């Protein structure tokens, strides 16, 4: 297993594979028990870190919601003079603001990156009742990179971290604060996993699919025949 050794400190700093302090802002682990049940973690797997998208990325949507909530109060007297029509417009504007604000809050709280001691989960909340979850074990990671694009991301120091798996499409951690730091920490964990112990290998075998196990078995048998021949 490519272990992601991360220990949250009281000041929300993080210590990863090589023991260096990350200084990465994280959420408090109070809701880890509910996360474990929702993500279906294994009995010996634990949540060590959760990261949400940068708050600045939801400010435009929050501003839009606030405008619709507050707008009727700036035109209260004209709207009241319109009686029924004014009341309908007030309720309509207020409703749009509340629904938009609720969707924004639910999307921000429900979208997160969950890091366990075995893998990374990307949880995306899409609307009020839809959610997508992607996971990738550290043992199946080939590399990691990050991208900061545009003036807005540069000024507010957030971007996208791309994790390259050994097979399949890259896994994106979008709009995360301080992407260079997170990219470096994940890279260290991948390197630590490549130099792992035999126990780590057993954990990796446990996560393999049937086809991968067959390939591993064939490779082991080939190596054994080669040694017997020597």
Secondary-structure blueprint of this entry?
Layout: E1 7-8, E2 14-15, H1 32-39, E3 47-52, H2 59-74, H3 76-81, H4 84-110, E4 112-116, E5 119-125, E6 131-137, E7 141-147, H5 150-156, E8 158-165, E9 171-177, H6 179-194, H7 198-207, H8 210-229
Antiparallel strand pairs: 1-2, 3-4, 4-5, 5-6, 7-8, 8-9
Helix pairs in contact: 2-4
CATH class of the largest domain: Mainly Beta
Examine the secondary-structure arrangement and name the CATH architecture of the largest domain: Roll
Q: pLDDT below 50 for ≥5 consecutive residues: which ranges?
A: 1-15, 18-22
- Name the CATH superfamily classification of the largest domain: Bacterial Pleckstrin homology domain
**Structural class, from secondary structure content?**
alpha+beta
Taking the sheet with the most strands, its summary is: 4 strands, antiparallel
Q: Give the spatial strand order of the biggest sheet.
A: 3-4-5-6
Order of helices and strands: EEHEHHHEEEEHEEHHH
N-end to C-end Cα span: 31 Å
Beta-strand portion reads: 15-25%
């Amino acid at each position: 297993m490519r272990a992601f050794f991360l220990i949250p400190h009281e000041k929300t700093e993080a210590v990863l594979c090589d023991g260096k302090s990350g200084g990465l802002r994280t959420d408090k682990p109070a809701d880890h028990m509910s996360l474990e049940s929702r993500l279906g973690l294994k009995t010996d797997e634990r949540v060590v870190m959760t990261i949400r998208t940068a708050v600045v990325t939801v400010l435009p949507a929050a501003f839009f919601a606030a405008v619709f909530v507050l707008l009727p109060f700036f035109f209260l007297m004209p709207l009241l003079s319109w009686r029924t029509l004014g009341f309908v417009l007030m309720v309509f504007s207020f409703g749009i603001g509340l629904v938009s604000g609720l969707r924004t809050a639910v999307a921000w709280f429900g979208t997160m990156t969950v890091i366990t001691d075995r893998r990374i989960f990307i949880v995306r909340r899409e609307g009020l009742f839809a959610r997508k979850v992607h996971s990738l074990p550290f043992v199946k990671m080939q590399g990691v990179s990050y991208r900061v694009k545009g003036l807005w991301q540069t000024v507010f120091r957030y971007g996208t971290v791309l994790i390259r798996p050994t097979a399949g499409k890259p896994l994106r951690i979008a709009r995360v604060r301080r992407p260079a730091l997170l990219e470096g920490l994940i890279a260290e964990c991948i390197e630590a996993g490549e130099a792992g112990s035999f126990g780590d290998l057993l954990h990796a075998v446990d996560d393999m699919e049937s086809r991968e196990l067959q390939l591993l078995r064939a490779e082991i048998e080939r190596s054994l025949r080669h040694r017997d021949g020597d």
